[in-house]
Design goal:
Number of helices: 11
Largest sheet: 5 strands, mixed
CATH superfamily of the largest domain: Histidine kinase-like ATPase, C-terminal domain
Number of strands: 5
Distance between the termini: 55 Å
CATH architecture of the largest domain: 2-Layer Sandwich
CATH topology of the largest domain: Heat Shock Protein 90
Oligomer: single chain
Order of helices and strands: HHHHHHHHEHEEHEEH
CATH class of the largest domain: Alpha Beta
Length: 422
């Protein structure tokens, strides 16, 4: 998140009671100068009026003793000078001083209103309420100590209370507006940060998709290449025809692996709408071809599909295909020469069940073909994301079994493009 500008730090909850001193901006200098001229200017004029014998704004104040007028001037001077530091830590002491002297002072009236207004802008409502109630109380006492002839007590107190309430409400409105601006700015900064985080997460997810898809597609092809190359290595006396056939199979497998790699990278780099299939994505209908590829590499595969592949939803079929593909790939890697049995069965009511098993190799799993060890981990994640479950391990019957269950969503298959056109 971006840093908060210094002039807005006082809006933070932790800074409400002890605001951090900041440098004044040009706007602050203009406002502070105007407040000083209003507050202290009225103090000078009022003191001159109190000491003048010719004319006064309030005739009853003509009888004000000189000592009281000079005391009033001194109080107004202190408050007027304090207006320059009302934004910092001196605000509360200055407000307390104004609350005490407001009982008798005339010259410091506008300056005291400015201080109360500043409290409303820079402090929370609880602090403002204390000073507002105090100001209303002193305003009720002031007409008793310095009454105005010809004006009833209620009128004098009413006007003073009105100015106090207006100052408080005005300050609260400005504080709320500034907090709203700060909140909107904070949301904008947060939204930008979250957008950057989403971009980083999207890149990570895309890289994971590419790695998983490349593993699923290429591991199968490369294992076939390794088996055919191993057959040539252990049979140096092979006839030229056998070598040519094996080389042809190796060349075809390598070509197919490169083709699959191009298609996977091309698909994962293409922007597609949500829910749109991503070719090449084989489904259960491609299981016979997958089994035949393994048989051509010398693996005995017994495939038993007890359902109609076309009736399985495409998403479920793609996940099932990857599970069977990974099971055959692991069997070729770690248990070469064994027979693999693949059973696929299910219904919309029971879900789709997949079972891939092969005898446990004598001497333990073979490491002739290296693997990353993450194939089954990625397959488990893929199955969980599809809403199913997957387990694997050695059984008491000395077999390695890979079992999976996938939900069979009750959804109608979308029509083919030609059917949709009709």
């Amino acid at each position: 998140m971006g840093k908060l500008r210094p002039e807005y730090r006082w809006l933070l909850p932790s800074a409400l009671e002890t605001p951090v001193p900041t440098r004044r901006s040009t706007r602050d200098w203009v406002i502070d100068t105007l407040c000083f001229l209003i507050g202290y200017g009225f103090c000078v004029l009022a003191t001159y009026d109190l000491l003048s014998a010719d004319f006064t704004f309030v005739p009853e104040w003509r009888l004000t003793p000189p000592w009281l007028a000079w005391l009033d001037f001194a109080v107004g001077t202190v408050i007027g000078i304090g207006l320059w530091w009302r934004r910092g830590r001196l605000l509360i002491p200055l407000a307390v001083f104004c609350a005490l002297v407001s009982i008798f002072t005339v010259a410091a009236g506008p300056a005291s209103m400015i201080v109360l207004f500043t409290v409303a802008v820079h402090r929370r409502f609880g602090v403002l309420a204390v000073f507002a109630v105090t100001a209303l109380a002193t305003n009720a006492i002031f007409p008793l100590l310095r009454p105005e002839d010809g004006r009833p007590y209620g009128q004098t107190m009413g006007w003073g209370s009105a100015f106090i309430i207006i100052s408080c409400l005005w300050g609260m409105v400005i504080r709320s507006r500034r907090q709203l601006v700060l909140s909107l700015r904070d949301r904008a900064v947060r939204a930008e940060s979250e957008q950057q985080l989403r971009v980083a997460q999207a890149r990570t997810v895309e890289r994971t998709r590419i790695a998983r898809e490349m593993h699923d597609v290429l591991a199968h092809r490369i294992s076939l290449l390794s088996l055919h190359a191993g057959a040539l290595e252990i049979k140096p006396d092979a006839t030229p025809d056998e070598v040519a056939r094996a080389a042809g199979v190796i060349r075809a497998s390598a070509h197919q692996a490169l083709q699959d790699l191009r298609e996977v990278i091309g698909v994962l780099r293409t922007d597609r709408s949500d829910g749109e299939p991503e070719p090449p994505q084989p489904t259960l209908g491609a299981l016979p071809a997958l089994a035949q590829e393994s048989r051509s590499a010398g693996v005995k595969v017994n495939l038993d599909v007890r359902l109609e592949p076309a009736s399985v939803p495409d998403g479920t079929g793609r996940t099932a295909y990857r599970i069977v593909q990974e099971g055959l790939t692991n069997a070729r890697k770690h248990a070469p020469g064994t027979a693999v049995r693949v059973d696929v069965a299910g219904s919309p009511a029971d879900g789709l069940a997949i079972n891939v098993r092969n005898p446990w190799p004598i001497g333990g799993p073979s490491g002739a073909i290296p693997g990353t060890g993450t194939g089954l981990i990625g397959l488990t994640e893929r199955t969980l994301l599809a809403g199913g479950r997957l387990s694997h391990g050695r059984t008491p019957q000395n077999e390695f079994v890979l079992t999976a269950w996938l939900p069979w969503p009750h959804e109608s298959k979308s029509p083919e493009p030609a059917e949709a056109a009709v």
